[in-house]
Design brief:
There is one protein chain. It contains nine helices and seven strands; from the N terminus they run ααβαβαββαβααβααβ. The longest helix has 21 residues. By secondary structure, the chain is α/β, with parallel strands linked by helices. It has a single domain, classed as Rossmann fold, CATH 3.40.50. Helices cover 38% and strands 23% of the residues.
Length: 251
């Protein structure tokens, strides 16, 4: 079931962050470059290439730069994000909680990076997206999984503070929604960010519009406690570890 209120909150936050997103989306850019290398090795067929949840277009730009005669269709539900795409980009304003537009069919490459986990019942989207591939086509989905942010979770758990991050997909559960012979590759990668304090850490999440939560806002005393109890490295800085799943399906 689509939660319109929740979806509107997500949309508003990404819309408000669109102008600043490119300057702060370090994790997203890091993995977009990794996807670029993977796609080069796959050598997908020339045809219709689509980026779902394209945001400001960083991954689509990489694809168009590295593959000649390719124009990537960029789909996103945030009008402000799409406005940040380079001039003459082919963009479609669309809520991915709804099935893809009917005229998108037989794509040779569909990518989705850091979008999947924001959708309602994301695992069910895999089947719909996969059905839009042509024979030999690839679906590549990259998302933070439920092993992400152990430092944040443990700090909250040990100090009786509500964890305010969103629920993230479990890779093993996602696998149950696809057939074994459809899976070309599954891998998990780690990425660690370092900040001088938790205030900068949470600000980084706000800067990219990824701060939508169903939890109440933290009090000043809770934030101070988290800053005190969050594990520090040898330089007294705090870390945030991402666990990233890459799922590649081939039709």
């Amino acid at each position: 079931m689509v939660n319109n209120y929740w979806n509107k909150k997500i949309n508003n936050n990404f819309n408000n962050a669109a102008h600043y997103y490119s300057n702060h989306s370090c994790v997203q850019k890091h993995f977009a470059n990794k996807l670029m290398l993977i796609i080069k090795e796959l050598e997908p067929q020339i045809g219709e290439w689509i980026d779902l949840g394209a945001g400001t277009g960083y991954l689509a730009d990489l694809l168009e730069k590295n593959f000649t005669n390719i124009k990537v269709i960029r789909i996103d539900f945030s009008p402000n994000m799409l406005k940040e795409n380079k001039k003459n980009s082919q963009t479609i304003l669309w809520d991915l909680n709804i099935d893809l537009p009917a005229y998108i069919n037989e794509a040779s490459l569909i990518t989705s990076s850091f979008c999947f986990h924001w959708l309602n019942e994301p695992e069910k989207k895999l089947r719909k997206w996969y059905s839009r591939l042509e024979p030999g086509g690839f679906l590549i989905v990259l998302f933070p999984n439920n092993k992400s942010f152990p430092e944040w979770r443990e700090t909250c758990k040990k100090n009786n503070i509500e964890y305010s991050g969103i629920s993230l997909p479990c890779t093993n559960i996602i696998k149950k929604f696809v057939k074994e012979n459809e899976i070309f590759l599954i891998k998990e990668l780690k990425y660690r960010e370092t900040f001088p304090n938790i205030y900068k850490l949470f600000k980084s999440i706000i800067n990219i519009g990824a701060h939508t939560t169903q939890s109440r806002r933290k009090t000043v005393s809770e934030l101070k406690l988290m800053q005190k109890k969050w594990p520090k490295d040898q330089y007294e800085k705090v870390n945030l570890t991402w666990s990233i799943s890459i799922l590649i399906l081939k039709k």
